[in-house]
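Why do we bother with holo predictions? Because pocket geometry can differ from the apo form. Keep that in mind while you read this record for 3-isopropylmalic acid.
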Amino acid sequence: MKTYNIALIPGDGIGRDVTGAAWQVMQAAAKRGGFALDGKRFPWSCAYYLETGAMMPPDGIETLRKFDAIYLGAVGWPAEVPDSVSLHGLLLPIRKGFTQYANIRPHRLLPGVQGPLRSDGFDILCIRENTEGEYSGAGGRVHSGTANEVAIETAIFTRAGVERIMRFGFEQARARRKKLASVTKSNAQKHSMVFWDEVTREIAKDYPEVEVSHYHIDAMAARMVLAPESLDVIVASNLFGDILTDIGAAIQGGLGYAASANINPDRSAPSMFEPVHGSAPDIAHLGVANPIAAIWSGAMMLEHLGERHAAAEVMSAIASVTAQGIGTIAGKDRTETITRAVLAALS
Amino acid sequence: MKTYNIALIPGDGIGRDVTGAAWQVMQAAAKRGGFALDGKRFPWSCAYYLETGAMMPPDGIETLRKFDAIYLGAVGWPAEVPDSVSLHGLLLPIRKGFTQYANIRPHRLLPGVQGPLRSDGFDILCIRENTEGEYSGAGGRVHSGTANEVAIETAIFTRAGVERIMRFGFEQARARRKKLASVTKSNAQKHSMVFWDEVTREIAKDYPEVEVSHYHIDAMAARMVLAPESLDVIVASNLFGDILTDIGAAIQGGLGYAASANINPDRSAPSMFEPVHGSAPDIAHLGVANPIAAIWSGAMMLEHLGERHAAAEVMSAIASVTAQGIGTIAGKDRTETITRAVLAALS
Ligand SMILES: CC(C)[C@H](C(=O)O)[C@@H](O)C(=O)O
Ligand SMILES: CC(C)[C@H](C(=O)O)[C@@H](O)C(=O)O
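The structure, written out:
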């Protein structure tokens, strides 16, 4: 039987609650699909940090490298461990270390979910550059602590970095409704964003069948609220994609429904799948976290592994559950109730 | 009679249409209020650029300096003049040249206007840093045109720059519902945004009566869509404020209702008032631009000049007009119809 080796990192807070739920559903889908998922759990988290002084062991990245995929719940427990440690010690090193340069996030309303907008007919795929740009980490300070203090943060965009995310975006658009929106702020950021626009125009030549439009980030943020149905594939930088995918999560009803995949398209290293939400310390371990985003992220993992049919089955199961009004109102249904309903719909 | 000298820059496209409308309303309010507005028109625009090679004369800034305020319609005509010329040759030099460091944008629904959200009870004041940060313009490229090309864009934050906008924000919050939300992305931008957070915490000590919260830009973008009623004053950097105010414009029904003021709080130079919308070449000079954002920006100018009563009268006139369903549906009412209705409501 075909077997996939999956590294499971439940992480902190509700990350643990939802990883368990998603894993049960993925296992059930594997059983039906005639393949096996062999999961190995890693306790890397803020609790692990408080014990060992690091979010993961020094050879963490090398350990993960041999897996077919990584599934992550959520990390962070800001009351005890600063975000700078939890994110920069685990999540971001995995994204960058495995060149997971495409962060993909689908935004559409599941049946039965009422979003905040009056409009509900949208189906957007946001593709966020995940390794460079505004989150490069370059910068520093001078005259610290004086009236004259200056802090700088430098966004770094490489031709290879922009080309590959754009090409990935065009491939996705070609397989969908053939519309790609590139998002910049080239009227105010004349170096990085004008460069992004130039590269986009070059890559676009290879995809004449895809209709390309160019938006400024401010206009795109407004468009996602005012006319989301006009959008198909959006490609944006690390920061702009980060912001737009939270707006996407908002219009699809909230973070309980926002799934994501951190993809290494060359498959030279494993990809990572995670719900967009954080560890939500305030509701951790109460059994009330909505596992739908986590299960959806699991479906994205199955799809990436090549198990399209199983992925589609999980997505239909989710949809049939929300269509019944289960998991559609924040806090109403328990994690377990929703998970059981999805498992029932699968079988 | 008290007389204010106003520099009028109608600019391009619908900038011209709405400036005329707003100016009529301001004049009527002045008449009722017993003061005078002496307007001097400057034709600085893309048309002016095509004739003269510059968006404004070399002594443009010096010419404007002696006015009590500047009123601008909109600039830009991208088909003929790139944004890099129109914005960097007029709008941005005025903002920076006159240290208009606080860009203020109110977001609330006017009566009768249906926004895109199901929720309608919000009243937000966004305060955007307007002179530095991510729009500093610093950066460049190496290895141009080669596979190895790199573009960088450096955000620059100064202590004086962050302190003054924060202090301004706290003053505004103190005069409103005493809640201030500071927006950063300090979990991913460790230099500039951690600095911003530090300065915010210091300034906050001087305003113990104001409740401060800290959001990441992605979470705040989502919050403006999911729970706008929970927000009062938002203070954000140049880029983050730019994005959030477009979301604010979207939730208040669109750019037809989004007013703004570029304030020099020390009054060492004139402030500038402008609707947030652009020049909208597609509908220019058809007489269909909604002048409400422009009129509202005019009311902000009257308020800044110290004519509070006149400003309040203009705001009530706008509200009574939209409450009647005039100017509330995009493209339904002509610029002139809406303007006349506001003038009638004023008298
Ligand atoms: C936690 C944070 C560093 C992360 C990011 O900005 O990438 C998160 O916001 C996300 O969108 O995955
Ligand atoms: C036109 C552009 C430079 C401007 C900005 O980004 O400041 C606009 O988007 C705004 O919000 O006033």
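The pocket of 3-isopropylmalic acid (ligand 1) is lined by residues A 87, 242, 276; B 187-188, 218 (CB under 6 Å).
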